Amino acid sequence: MKAGAILPHTHLYGGVKRFIELGRIFNGAGHSFTLYTPHGIAPNWTRNDIRVATFEDLEKEHNDMLFVTDRKYKKILLKAKARYKIFYHVSLHHKARKMVRDKRFHVFACSSNVVRYDKLLFSRIPFLAAGGIDTEQFYPKQNAVSEKKDEFTILVYGRIHERVKGTRLVVKACEKLYKKYPFIRLVLFDTPVNSSMSMAIENFNTHVPFEFITNHPVEENAALFHQADIFVAAEKGAGWANTVAEAMACGIPVVATRSGTADILIDSITGIRVRREVNSIARGIRKLIRSPELRESLASNGRRHIEKFTWQILAEKILNWYDKKENHALRRKHENK
Questions:
Q1: Whole-model pTM?
Q2: Where are the beta strands (DSSP E) in 145-285?
């Protein structure tokens, strides 16, 4: 089976990472997978073990499954030679009406958040292809409860250039708590992919003690999560919250909004759910500062639950979808003879 994904680039974004992870598993199972981008440039933040080709190459090649996540590549997908053309709906920020309602495409959803969205707005129920996470790369820390009595580390994804990530809301919540809990500290991390992101990081400041880590090797990010007592996310319109999944896999208690976490965050069991509002986020953080027992429970439950959403499980689910489509087509062919 030959498969591929049409992408705008191979920079470090969740949608790109998704297809790199899936592609590796497809290749390992004896299939072939290609990333198609305008210029065919391989990613520089991870190992280059997947074929990368250009849109010109795509015009000459045939794929059994071809994925796209961005509506601006609709014409390219339509022109491509592919048996199953799939719109993988991974973000609620992108206008998706024309893709989801187009019956020429099969529609996948990266989470239950997206399934609910497509059903309500477009009257179409996509195939739920939720996930994923590498539970070997992101492994539990030895002790989920900090042994440092004079310090409580709050980790947050530092993509402050993108307001939908909610990083500044988390920072404001920590500033609100700092007077009463002067032992808290912030650790932010990101890999900026353009000058605007770099500038936003350089200009970042807060009166809460903090460290901003940039360009950390992505495949060693478990070490970042292991520094933390808790991880906090306040995303908006996310499909699948990658960093929340990674924190849970690392055995770090999470405080997060519903955005991108409908499949993985069970309130007060695998994490603390909050509204995307400073006071609500602050209350969630305070609850975990006060209760080592709750932190330990969330860490254990979160790790156990996230193991249901590995890239391997997701890849097998997609391959099963493909096999069922092929078997159905074969039966119809025999029936029409």
A1: 0.92
A2: 152-157, 184-190, 210-214, 230-233, 254-256, 272-273
